[in-house]
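Customer ticket, subject: "Can you confirm the structure for Molybdopterin-synthase adenylyltransferase MoeB?"

Message body: Hello, I'm evaluating your service for our small team and ran a test protein. I'd like someone to confirm that this is what the system normally returns, since I don't have a reference to compare against.
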Amino acid sequence: MSYEQRAVHLRAAIPEIPAEQVLDMLRHDDAVLIDVRDAEEVKGGLPEPAQHLARGQLELNIHHLVDDVHRPIAVMCASGLRSLFAAESLINLGYTKVFSVRGGFKQWKDAGLPTRVPQQLSVFDRERYSRHLLIPEVGEKGQLRLKSSRVLLLGAGGLGSPVALYLAAAGVGTLGIVDPDVVESSNLQRQVIHGEDQLGKLKVDSAEAAIHRLNSQIKVIKHPVLLDESNALSLLQDYDLVVDGSDNFKARYLVNDACVKLGIPNVHGAIYRFEGYVTTFAASDEAPCYRCMYPELPPPEMAPSCAEAGVLGVLPGVIGLLQAVEVIKLLLGIGRNLSGKMLRVDALNNEFSMLDIDKAEQCLCSHHRDEIQIKPIEAFACAI
Ligand SMILES: [Zn+2]
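Agent reply: Thanks for trying us out. I re-ran your input and got the following:
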């Protein structure tokens, strides 16, 4: 059968729908619109509600976009011919409700239907993040999501160092850093973002230099201030997510209260000698928060004198990177996160254990967000 004969045959076999009808299908029938044109072709624009999956990738990757074979799929190309062949392939794969959009993208545009210009990674970024692009759960869409994400790191110390370096390497586009301190020689045993040549300099400056050596495209926003009740909300409000690597209880309560009020997830890490803890306070209605675990600031005599207690230098590397993994998953909306769970790491005995965190009924996180006030918190330092 010649190409023309096959096309005639397909036109008879594959249901075609006019572009104007597609929006109705998307709205009322939970349909999905797939634009199968090449990457070059969609650079100029594609239907606003369409997912792009180039013809050459269709059979391999369609299950990532549509896992229910009975979900209606409208396939679109430039003029409505390639989409017939693509639709035939989908039917052969077992999809039961496949349509071809008559007239393709040309018809869509002529009808004045909504379009968008897709964000795309540059050639350099494609190479740089190629190992991410190979993972279906990340892919180009996920990498673009990371690029547009804004993460605030509370502290550029033991935990903040590995988090900042790995998030920068992974392509998280904007990193804010809150830290009023300067680099001291006792920091270098674990705060690997700083070096000897940065001694005496502000940690935010030192961290920025290291981040830009690794990835010059990352926007670093420096906040060389102490987090307190007067600035917590304004510091946090422009970020998608906060990483708490703070070294004192006051900051932990403050960042918790502000994150709950603003609805921003908080990835929390803490370290003590050979032990570390990681959890995510998701800031959703069902999720517990830091105060659900510790309703009140512990009395000073109960809190360890951390400068004396010490910490194994590599432990914040382990805990910080577990936080970084949480961050990436949360930003991409993939996998299972640590909301409601506390991962405890005992490095001395090689034990990883998971503890449950229950939501406390009377906790601040059960209040309406508007009612939450950011109050002063009695401070005492825990300076690991
Ligand atoms: Zn709570």
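A couple of notes from the result: Residues 288-289, 291-292, 360, 363-365 surround zinc ion (CB under 6 Å). Residues 380-384 have pLDDT under 50 and may be disordered. Feel free to reply with more questions.
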